[in-house]
Amino acid sequence: MNQHMVREIYERHADNIYRLCYSYVKNAQDAQDALQNTFVKLMRADMEFDSVEHEKAWLIVTAGNTCKDMLKSWWYKRTVSYDENTADDIAGSEEDRELLEEILNLPVNIRVSVYLHYYEGYSSAEIGKLLKKGDGTVRGYLKRGRELLRERLGEF
């Protein structure tokens, strides 16, 4: 894949992939690292995509796996910290920021499912394919996420 194609894909998807990475790692610098590593993997993979949705799905899966690898590393577990200033950059209003902070405090499978559904517009079946989980499992994550958010924030 040539640099021009990678740049086009980056411009189309970088913001969304960054937000996904941030939802996993909860830290701006680590989310940026994960984003960069995802695009390095894209350059090395020399992928041919059928559509923009296909490239987006590939990036979501790859970014998720990259973030999971980061979260498993012993170094990451010892040094991670939540970056509240970046939440301001991602969310606009105070209400949006409060919601985002609560979403980031959800367990990882619930958090990623909620992000992909409400921020990226994926259905539970599509999320299941991306995360290699059953549709019912994803629907359960979404239901539990709504319940937890309702408990913490009131009506959601």
Give a short summary of the structure.
With 156 residues, the protein is an all-alpha fold. It is 80% helix and 0% strand.
Tell me what you see in this structure.
The protein has nine helices and no strands. By secondary structure, it is mainly alpha-helical. The longest helix is centred in the first third of the chain and has 23 residues. About 3% of the residues have low confidence.
What is the number of beta strands?
0
Instruction: Round the Cα radius of gyration to an integer and report it.
Output: 16 Å
N-to-C CA distance: 43 Å
Q: Proportion of β residues?
A: under 5%
- What can be said about the biggest beta sheet? none
Total count of helical runs of at least 4 residues: 9
Order of helices and strands: HHHHHHHHH
For the residues shown, what is the average pLDDT? 85
Fraction in helix = over 70%
Uncertain regions: pLDDT < 50 for 5+ in a row? 78-82
| Gross morphology | globular
- Class by alpha and beta content: mainly alpha
Explain the layout of strands and helices.
Layout: H1 3-25, H2 28-45, H3 52-72, H4 74-79, H5 84-90, H6 94-104, H7 108-119, H8 124-131, H9 135-153
Tag the structure with descriptive keywords:
156 residues; mainly alpha; 0% strand; globular
